[in-house]
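In the lab's daily routine, each protein ends up as an entry in a very long ledger. A line of letters takes care of the sequence, but it says nothing directly about the fold. The three-dimensional part falls to structure tokens, numbers that each stand for a local backbone shape. The outcome of that step, for a single protein, is printed below.
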Amino acid sequence: MLTVEHQADVCVGYITGEMTIYQAAELYTLLLPLWQQTTPLQLNLAKVTAIDSSGVQLLMLLKKPCAPYPLPVSFSQHSSAVLEAIQLLDLTAYFNDPIVLPAAKGSNTTKGNATKDSRDGS
């Protein structure tokens, strides 16, 4: 669910699995001590498989600095589930994180003129 890597200038948390109402309270309990540190927190969301409004609310809470937790949290490597939720709820500007969109399927096709299939007798 959450693994943590402490680096010199940042604490990186890796969330895996679902971020839904069923995990929100447990995730909050795990993230709170990391959020209270004086080292900035970065959450890697690459392995989030599902997210609902409870998971989004948790991300929103972590993103907004408030006393006594003055440091905002940054998010990276957003999974497609997280990107979809953020876009659906029109929260891209709220999070203001650099988002790398995954390449579309079939984007490696070459451009050019289509040719007829030789099996159709042409």
User: Anything to note?
Assistant: The longest strand covers residues 41-51. The radius of gyration is 20 Å. Residues 107-122 have pLDDT under 50 and may be disordered. The beta strands are 2-6, 11-19, 41-51, 73-76.
